[in-house]
Specification:
Blueprint (H helix, E strand, L loop, with lengths): L11 E10 L2 E10 L7 E7 L4 H19 L4 H8 L8 E4 L6 E2 L2 H13 L18
Antiparallel strand pairs: 1-2, 1-4, 2-3, 4-5
Helix pairs in contact: 2-3
Length: 135
């Protein structure tokens, strides 16, 4: 199996969002290689009750998924694995045009991948194709 490495210089799309809860907020920075089939995923998470171990786990998860993408894993399968994961914090999302609630930071990342890259408008809370949408 051949590894498809991303080019040395590439465009990245960054999505910043905050999950707001009674216990505080968690800020998520999700970077994806800007391509029809992204080959890299970077995740940076900041916020309350976040220690070095949790930060390292997010980094390792992003590295593992990046390698999976480079070896041909479908982006939609990665998004589906993360979708629905329930861990704290969960709640309203601020800063994303289409996703307004999540069950965890991992669920948010899965939703981003599926909504923004895989066209899964059914998972978005705001659908730009809806004629009744005023946003």
């Amino acid at each position: 199996m051949t590894r498809n490495r991303p080019p040395a210089r590439r465009k990245i799309i960054r999505q910043k969002a905050k999950i707001k809860t009674d216990q505080g907020e968690r800020t998520i920075y999700l970077d994806l290689h800007d391509d029809e089939q992204p080959l890299e995923l970077f995740v940076q998470v900041k916020g309350t009750s976040l220690d070095a171990e949790k930060i390292a786990l997010y980094n390792c998860l992003a590295c593992a998924y990046s390698l999976a993408l480079q070896y041909g894993a479908p982006l939609e399968k990665i998004g589906e694995q993360l979708l629905g994961v329930k861990v704290a914090p969960a709640g309203p999302v601020v800063g994303d045009e289409r996703i307004k609630n999540c069950q965890s930071p991992l669920d948010y990342i899965g939703r981003c991948i599926l909504v923004w890259y895989c066209g899964r408008n059914d998972l978005a809370h705001i659908n730009p194709d809806d004629p009744g949408n005023k946003t």
